[in-house]
Amino acid sequence: MVKIERTPLPPASLAIECKKAHGSYCEEDVMLQLQKDFHDKCYICELKPLTNVEVEHLRPHHNRKIKERVFDWSNLFYACPHCNSVKTAAKYDDKIIDCCTVDPEVLLRQSFVDGEVDVYPIERNAEENVRMTADLIQSCFAKSNTGIRTIQCAARVKALAKTMNSLYKTLQQFKAHKDSPKYRFALRAMLKREYAFAAFTRDYVRSHAKDCPELQEFLS
User: Fold this and answer.
1) Is the dihedral of CA 84, 88, 91, 92 positive or negative?
2) Which segments of the chain does DSSP mark as H helices, in order?
3) 91: buried, middle or exposed (CB in 10 Å: 19+, 13-18, 0-12)?
4) Which pLDDT belongs to residue 36?
5) How many alpha carbons lie under 13 Å from residue 193 in its C-beta half-sphere?
6) What pLDDT is stored for residue 180 in this prediction?
7) Residues of the chain predicted below pLDDT 70
């Protein structure tokens, strides 16, 4: 999970649909704006691109019982069905940080070590929403309470591993060819927030600052 810059102005359809008895918060203008703002990736697991997309409500509306949350532009997030399903657990209700208003990277370590995802708060006494956000991200890569979730989690770990292996190889090439701008440009792209699994690529470079100090400027 990385910081997202949401477009301030709500899509026009939300004001229209909220007046209907069974209005939709998934009209084309909403979906296209979410796709753009969230860089066509799930805000929780960062899988990209998404072929199956759902609009996820950060704060639950409980079957539209809290109607003001249903069409609230600041409450609509771009997610994959897998992560949206995991987040429906009641323990996450109103306890996930808003990555459009705070930077998850200053609160969480999101690492991939020896083929394992490890997400945890940076501060030992972190607030509950930070701890629950870490738990959610971790679960979206490791939950195995059903066969379908086991397969979906494994697919995300595999995609993450492919991205991280590409990062490792490019870092090696960069170190061997410091005078070539080719690998520097490639690494800059991999460290942008819009990149797939950017929280993990950025965490790796940040945690290896001594090995690659030249790349720290790309994390701003």
Assistant:
1) positive
2) 12-17, 28-37, 67-70, 81-87, 128-142, 147-176, 181-190, 198-207
3) exposed
4) 98
5) 18
6) 85
7) none
